[in-house]
Automatic annotation (TrEMBL), chain A:
Location(s), subcellular: Cytoplasm, Cytoskeleton
Name of the featured protein: Wiskott-Aldrich syndrome protein family member
Cross-referenced PROSITE patterns: WH2
Family: Belongs to the SCAR/WAVE family.
GO function terms (MF aspect): actin binding; Arp2/3 complex binding; protein kinase A regulatory subunit binding
Species the sequence originates in: Bactrocera dorsalis
Disordered, as annotated region: 180-210, 351-430, 458-496, 587-610
Main location: cytoplasm
Cellular component per GO, a single term: cytoskeleton
Assembly: Binds actin and the Arp2/3 complex.
From TrEMBL, chain B:
Ribonucleoprotein listed as a keyword: no
InterPro entries noted in UniProt: BRICK1 (IPR033378)
Homology family: Belongs to the BRK1 family.
Presence of keyword Coiled coil: yes
Cellular compartments annotated: Cytoplasm, Cytoskeleton
Domain of life, source organism: Eukaryota
Assigned keywords, A-Z: Coiled coil, Cytoplasm, Cytoskeleton
Transmembrane segments: none
Record's protein name: Probable protein BRICK1-B
Length: 610, 76
């Protein structure tokens, strides 16, 4: 029932109580006079309401005029300020722009317009005429549920609470749907991970064999993927060798499989995937033969390449370990000893890979090194190929060589790497790989590349057994990783100086390899050096702009968090805040839908590109 | 006598009609005044509401412009 804001009284002008006598005498005149008096009352009431109306209007108009005047004054000030502005005179620092708060108006929207407080005065008068509700709140002491008894009789906020709960439910539902949608993007993110793999694919695309390997790995099953990747790389090597055989770098490589076939049956078996079965059948006689061959080859091997290589590796070691100085001197005379250590080391590897020693399991731990190898694959396919195949081919050798003497302790690994270096390229790779876990993946890549070049050199000059023995960089790398992880290694050298030292070492390696093997190795090493050179600037290139932008972003985020907390504490009892939150959620929802579209577009593009 | 009484009654009735007409005029004018006041109130309130809205937007714009122009100090 709508209540009139203003009612003029009396309504029935001519109605009145008359006495019979009066009516008989001056009946009509009395009625007329009564009506006239009531009319005058109406007029008085009307004048009162009119005064009220005009008073309200005058008040509103006064408020508006005040606002208009203040606004006019502000506009004048602003116009003066704007006319006085000179962009050429004022330098606006970039930090001020980034640190400026987002503008937020202090104006508050009117809300709860129809509440008791905003009731107009004439209505309030009629309202006060009503009887007050019974004082049911006095019975609250006797209530067990803690509810307000008066709320059962009258509750002015009932409908607002109803609306508020409904709106909050809506917002929660929207948030929930949003969360579902967020899950979808997560799934998309998983796809995007696949896409990132696709990106890797795309990067690898020059190597067709990689994709083949990958498909084959997928065909084997997802669980086997990492192992398969490690194992299939050798196959890819063969393909790569055939593909890049014309390059000349692989000429030595092309000879390798033959050498492997000749000397290590297990290698071919391993490449074919039957390594484990054959590995079990390998006898000590084979191992001893391998050892003797290796020793003979070391003794026979020309000192030039070895010395050069050893010196290179020794340089690297000197940077990474304190024993490097002894390396150069101890190279030749410690060969046998080193070989023994090497053999022992390989035995430990073989054990780890074969699964005899559960602690040394290299297989499960192999996936981590894969990403750097991928990077190396991307940049220098040769090195990646060299790393993976050698590793796999070396594993059988290592296993075959020795029945398990206990795996060489970490001290040997950490301390003797230079010696093993001197023994063979493969050992050098091991030494480097030992250092790798301490360093970054990028460094690891370069080291692998260097090892690869070294291995190439040795392959050129040396009989293949060395290669087989030496080149298992990743396996040993993982090996060393495990050892390092298990036992506290001697204090690792701080990474940054290592990188610089590696720079130097790479330079020396480049020189030596260039003298030995020609320009291709030099080119590879240069690529690695360039790669390294490119890496540090990413950190150094923090200009003031970037810094300012980052600072500004962080500041804004903090403010947002504070604002959100404040809103959570104060809001939700406010119509404007509830509506604003809902609108914000809806807007964010629409934006997310747009972003989803974008991501889908990205996915499609990546898929197409892949 | 009867004619005299009849004339007196007619006269009273005429007078009553005149009074009633007068009262009707007054009430009608009061209604007109009320209508005018209502319409005036409504029109004024609507116009004031429009003006208030415009003022609000202008104030928001001025706030934004001041925030854009000023650096720290307040204009008003």
């Amino acid at each position: 029932m709508p209540l009139p804001k203003r009612s003029i009284e009396p309504v029935h002008v001519s109605r009145s109580v008359y006495q019979q006598d009066e009516l008989q005498l001056v009946e009509l005149e009395t009625i007329t006079n009564t009506a006239l008096t009531n009319i005058i009352r109406q007029l008085s009431s009307l004048s009162k309401h009119a005064e009220d109306i005009f008073g309200e209007l005058a008040r509103d108009v006064g408020n508006i005029s005040n606002r208009a005047n203040s606004l006019q004054a502000r506009i004048d000030h602003l116009s003066i300020k704007v006319t006085q502005l000179d962009s050429s005179m004022e330098d606006v620092p970039l930090t001020d722009i980034t640190r400026k708060k987002g503008f937020r108006s202090t104006k508050v929207f009117d809300q709860k317009i129809f509440s008791h407080s905003t009731m107009p005065a004439p209505m309030l008068e009629t309202y006060t005429m009503c009887d007050k509700p019974p004082p049911l709140n006095k019975l609250n002491n006797y209530r067990d549920d803690g509810k307000d008894g008066l709320k059962f009789y009258t509750d002015p906020n009932y409908f607002f609470e109803l609306w508020r709960q409904e709106m909050l439910k809506d917002t929660e539902r929207v948030m929930h749907d949003k969360g579902k949608k967020m899950n979808r993007p997560r799934q998309d993110g998983g796809n995007s991970c696949v896409n990132s793999a696709g990106n890797k694919k795309r990067v690898r695309k020059p190597h067709n064999t990689r994709e083949k390997q990958r498909l084959i790995a997928i065909g084997h099953g997802e669980t086997l993927m990492p192992n398969n990747i490690n194992y299939q790389t050798p196959n890819s090597i063969v393909n790569m060798e055939t593909a890049f055989g014309s390059v000349g770098v692989f000429e030595s490589r092309q000879q390798r499989p033959n050498s492997i076939d000749l000397r290590n049956i297990s290698n071919s078996e391993l490449s074919s995937g039957d390594y484990y079965s054959s590995h079990a059948q390998t006898t000590t006689s084979n191992i001893s033969a391998m050892v003797t061959n290796a020793v003979n080859q070391k003794t026979v091997s020309p000192g030039e390449n070895e010395n050069g290589i050893v010196s290179m590796h020794s340089m690297q070691r000197a940077e990474h370990s304190l024993h490097a100085e002894h390396v150069c001197d101890d190279e030749i005379f410690s060969e046998n000893q080193n070989f023994c250590e090497q053999s022992g080391f390989f035995i430990s590897e073989g054990i780890g890979t074969s699964g005899i020693n559960s602690r040394m399991k290299t297989r499960p731990s192999q996936p981590p090194p894969a990403p750097p190898s991928n990077g190396s694959r991307n940049e220098t396919p040769v090195s990646s190929n060299a790393n993976t195949p050698t590793r796999i081919r070396n594993l059988p050798n290592n296993r075959d060589i020795l029945p398990p003497p206990p795996p060489i302790p970490e001290g040997v690994i950490n301390i003797t790497p230079p010696r093993t270096h001197s023994v063979g390229n493969g050992n050098t790779s091991t030494g480097i790989s030992l250092q790798l876990p301490k360093n970054k993946s990028s460094i690891l890549l370069h080291l692998d590349n260097n090892n690869f070049t070294n291995s190439n050199l040795t392959n050129m000059s040396r009989p293949p057994i060395y290669q087989d023995l030496g080149l298992s960089p990743q396996a040993e790398h993982q090996h060393s990783k495990q050892k390092l992880a298990n036992v506290a290694p001697p204090p690792p050298p701080p990474p940054p100086p290592l990188s610089q030292n590696e720079y130097i070492s790479q330079g020396s390696i480049v020189d030596l390899t260039s003298t030995i093997n020609g320009g291709i190795i030099k080119r590879i090493s240069e690529e690695t050096i360039d790669k390294k050179k490119h890496l540090p600037p990413s950190y150094d290139s923090r200009t003031d702009l970037m810094k300012a932008i980052r600072d500004g972003i962080t500041l804004r985020k903090v403010e947002k968090c504070e604002q959100k907390e404040i809103e959570r504490n104060t809001a939700l009892h406010d119509v404007a805040s509830i509506l604003a939150r809902r609108v914000a959620i809806e807007l964010s929802e629409s934006e997310e839908s747009d972003s989803d579209d974008d991501s889908e577009g990205w996915m499609e593009s990546t898929e197409n590109s892949a | 006598m009867s004619s005299m009484h009849r004339e007196g009654v007619q006269k009273q009735i005429h007078q009553d009609w005149a009074n009633r007409e007068y009262i009707e005029v007054i009430t009608a004018s009061i209604k007109r005044i009320t209508d005018f006041l209502n319409s005036f109130d409504m029109s004024c309130r609507s116009r004031l509401a429009v003006l208030n809205e415009k003022l609000s937007t202008l104030e928001r714009r001025i706030d934004y412009l001041e925030a854009c122009v000023t650096q720290g100090e307040t204009l008003t």
